[in-house]
Amino acid sequence: MTINCKGQLIDISTPKVMGILNVTPDSFHDGGQYKDESSILKQVETMLNEGATFIDIGGYSSRPGADFVSENEELNRVVPVVELILKHYPETLISIDTFRSEVAKKSIEAGAAIINDISAGLLDENMIATVGQLGVPYIMMHMKGNPKTMQQHTNYDDLVKDINSYFAERIARAHAAKINDIIIDPGFGFAKTTEQNYELLNNMELLQIVDKPILAGVSRKSMIYKTLNTTSENALNGTTALHMVALQKGAKILRVHDVKEAVECVTLFNQLTKN
Predict the structure, then answer these.
(1) Alpha carbon distance 274, 147 (integer Å)
(2) What are 8's strand-pairing partners?
(3) Does residue 62 have a pLDDT over 80?
(4) Which of 100, 164, 233, 252 is deepest in the core (most CB within 10 A)?
(5) pLDDT for 24-59, tens place per residue?
């Protein structure tokens, strides 16, 4: 189970950690924290030293009700950060969290390695063809609607079955566009209630039917802090608890705000499963 990142084969049969770097003013947990070169480089260095395999850069907040960001603004946020990171840490494998094909294209041309699309190509009709032409791994997430409207779309006939059907159709389109390396993200918190998020996590192994690696993104989300009656700032312990569940349910990548704790979780999971 490998993915090809800029000619480097990354083995994800052993779970890997993807560190989140939001260069947005309004992301739900860390919005506005990384807005100058010094703070960005310091955070990237920390995450790499703590064991992150990938750094995921987002220039458009996808939190519920997030404000619209123009394509030019997103490009201006993301591309210079890709260039900055690779200038100082040239071996970094950068993932770009975007649903826009032009942002994907310019970011890969700047040296990024992976495209992480919350819409699986549904918010930009050129995205899947563009990723196919770029020849990079593609993370496709399950969502209905868009970040502004998704919480109005939480009706399902059968949650897991509907998500599997969605991925089957999206994967077929990606294969037709010659995308070789596909990772699926169930989309915790996207067009799902708290109860549905836990139903999905509890049955996440059933997503393996589509035969693609699974990325789990639960880090500090409302499914944790609302259940614990706390805040995202105090949701690290809950995040770690659910990370272990996600690993046991088949997750191969954890997308996280806190790399050190996630890497420790993976280490303990590996110890648990090797006997």
Answers:
(1) 40
(2) 5
(3) no
(4) 100
(5) 764 444 445 667 889 899 999 999 999 999 999 998
Phi, psi dihedrals of residue 22, rounded to the nearest 5°: -90, 120
Measured CA to CA, the distance from residue 33 to residue 131 in angstroms comes to 30
Q: Which of 103, 94, 176 is nearest to 137 (CA)?
A: 94
Amino acid at the residue 16: K
- Number of Cβ within 10 Å of residue 134's Cβ equals 18
Residue 137, pLDDT score: 98
Rounded alpha-carbon distances, angstroms, from residue 22 to 43, 74, 95, 126, 183: 11, 11, 12, 24, 21
Helix%, strand%, coil% for the chain, nearest 5? 45, 15, 40
- For residue 101, the surrounding DSSP H or E stretch is helix 101-109
Report the distance separating Cα 197 and Cα 273, nearest Å.
25
Q: Mean pLDDT, to the nearest integer, of 234-249?
A: 98
pTM, rounded to two decimals: 0.95
Whole-number pLDDT of residue 68: 80
Give catalytic status of residue 255 as yes or no.
yes
CA angle 85–87–40, rounded 5-degree value? 25
Options 221, 249, 252, 260, the catalytic residue: 221
In whole angstroms, how large is the CA radius of gyration of the chain? 17
